[in-house]
Amino acid sequence: MAASIARLFSRVSWHGPCIILKNTLPCITLRYTFHRSATTQSGLLFSLNKRGILKDAFPENAAQDQLPQLLQSGCQTVYCGFDPTADSLHVGNLLAIVGLLHFRSAGHNVIALIGGATAQIGDPSGKTSEREHLPSDVVEDNTRAIRESLQRIFTNHELNFHNDSKKLGTVTLLNNLAWYKDWNVVAFLSEVGRRFRMGTLLSRHSVQSRLKSAEGMSLTEFSYQLFQAYDFYHLNQNHSCKIQLGGTDQLGNLMSGHEFIHKVTGQDVYGLTIPLVTSSAGDKLGKTAGNAVWLNRDKTSPFDLYQFFLRQPDSSVEWYLKLFTFLTLAEVERVMEQQRQEPGKRPAHKRLAAEITKLVHGKEGLESAKRCTNALYHSNLQALEQMSDAELQELFREAPFHELLLEPGTTVLDACRRAEAIPQGAKGYRMVSEGAVWINHSKTDSPEQVLIPGQHLLANGLSLLKVGKKNVHIIKWLNL
């Protein structure tokens, strides 16, 4: 049985990880009281548990003594898997990555395993229906994009959050397609399948919940836990990996890996799970629910990521600071004290948004998010002038982008008509004269006004044209 990390410590002295967030009040039930020895309190597991990053350990008995001792005995290898079922990871995967980063900061080696093979099978854990089959070329493209995202985040952590006085563990990015591409089904079932008992596989919660559903469960989905178990075995044999990190919905897969390795090799290996954060209604969120906040810039800009965390409810901020940032717990308390003293300034929200944006997109991404925030919400002309074409298009993702030649004597009315932002004829003229048009955050109610450099024409060759409250057009003047 798996043991709650909290119970584990109180007695002694995550392929498909997913913590899901939504811009609503999350339902988080982890609250622990600690009574531990000084030695245990100094351990990595205790630290991660106190931050809320760890929930359960498996197997229960061994984890009470052997796992803490193993981590203290020297450098270990920890892995977590990510199936490339989309061309980007999302905020739902972030806590798993943060968990790996904590292990790496403590000197342990980490493996981020991309499931180029298992993505074509589909993990049933936490799913109410079978995942749509993905063609191999789509999985290959997704794998490439996710690898780049993971590399970026690991690099950002090393550059921006690592204490140089501590030695970092290594990072290895692998694709499980590498060891499945030469297997045939007969050989796999003969060598791997015979090690599993049907009763045990059928007893898994992920299997039981699907078997009781109207759609049922396909044989393909049912076999997923065999592949994840073999992944753990392969990493154990080839990379000396003894610890798997996964979401709580992965506990059944994790158990299968432990049982397979123990039967084949006699070794003890371990599993650690991270909590799932759900909506207030208890629904697991993410790309399956259609509300993902992505980690790749071409799908969710640094500005949008920054705003997502900036808009979290007050009741979530302290918890998220502990989960997703590398601030010490003492620093988190100082930030929260500032929040209590000056709630209107929202220092905790800003720190949370800044720390996560810097981790995902680096310092340049954070600066971009701040420029976009100042340009959009604070009508800061200097920030708008400093924005690149790409940032403006990210900020106004649905806005038409026009490249126009600036002709001598071009007026406000000319610009609006050439951008097709207003109707032709008298109606469009009236819209300008009645104050419905804004250029670079300034109301412009003189249709015949010639465009003025520095006011209507920014030094970066751009004009931000807004008609009414929502219709935004971006104009790039080519011969400014």
Automatic annotation (TrEMBL):
<dbReference type="InterPro" id="IPR001309">
    <property type="entry name" value="Pept_C14_p20"/>
</dbReference>
<dbReference type="InterPro" id="IPR002307">
    <property type="entry name" value="Tyr-tRNA-ligase"/>
</dbReference>
<feature type="domain" description="Caspase family p20">
    <location>
        <begin position="336"/>
        <end position="420"/>
    </location>
</feature>
<dbReference type="InterPro" id="IPR014729">
    <property type="entry name" value="Rossmann-like_a/b/a_fold"/>
</dbReference>
<protein>
    <recommendedName>
        <fullName>Tyrosine--tRNA ligase</fullName>
        <ecNumber>6.1.1.1</ecNumber>
    </recommendedName>
</protein>
<dbReference type="GO" id="GO:0005524">
    <property type="term" value="F:ATP binding"/>
</dbReference>
<dbReference type="GO" id="GO:0006508">
    <property type="term" value="P:proteolysis"/>
</dbReference>
<dbReference type="InterPro" id="IPR002305">
    <property type="entry name" value="aa-tRNA-synth_Ic"/>
</dbReference>
<dbReference type="InterPro" id="IPR036986">
    <property type="entry name" value="S4_RNA-bd_sf"/>
</dbReference>
<dbReference type="GO" id="GO:0004831">
    <property type="term" value="F:tyrosine-tRNA ligase activity"/>
</dbReference>
<dbReference type="InterPro" id="IPR024088">
    <property type="entry name" value="Tyr-tRNA-ligase_bac-type"/>
</dbReference>
<keyword id="KW-0030">Aminoacyl-tRNA synthetase</keyword>
<dbReference type="InterPro" id="IPR001412">
    <property type="entry name" value="aa-tRNA-synth_I_CS"/>
</dbReference>
<keyword id="KW-0496">Mitochondrion</keyword>
<dbReference type="GO" id="GO:0006437">
    <property type="term" value="P:tyrosyl-tRNA aminoacylation"/>
</dbReference>
<keyword id="KW-0648">Protein biosynthesis</keyword>
<dbReference type="GO" id="GO:0005829">
    <property type="term" value="C:cytosol"/>
</dbReference>
<keyword id="KW-0436">Ligase</keyword>
<dbReference type="GO" id="GO:0005759">
    <property type="term" value="C:mitochondrial matrix"/>
</dbReference>
<dbReference type="GO" id="GO:0003723">
    <property type="term" value="F:RNA binding"/>
</dbReference>
<dbReference type="InterPro" id="IPR024107">
    <property type="entry name" value="Tyr-tRNA-ligase_bac_1"/>
</dbReference>
<comment type="function">
    <text>Catalyzes the attachment of tyrosine to tRNA(Tyr) in a two-step reaction: tyrosine is first activated by ATP to form Tyr-AMP and then transferred to the acceptor end of tRNA(Tyr).</text>
</comment>
<keyword id="KW-0809">Transit peptide</keyword>
<comment type="subunit">
    <text>Homodimer.</text>
</comment>
<comment type="similarity">
    <text>Belongs to the class-I aminoacyl-tRNA synthetase family.</text>
</comment>
<dbReference type="GO" id="GO:0004197">
    <property type="term" value="F:cysteine-type endopeptidase activity"/>
</dbReference>
<keyword id="KW-0067">ATP-binding</keyword>
<dbReference type="Pfam" id="PF00579">
    <property type="entry name" value="tRNA-synt_1b"/>
</dbReference>
<keyword id="KW-0547">Nucleotide-binding</keyword>
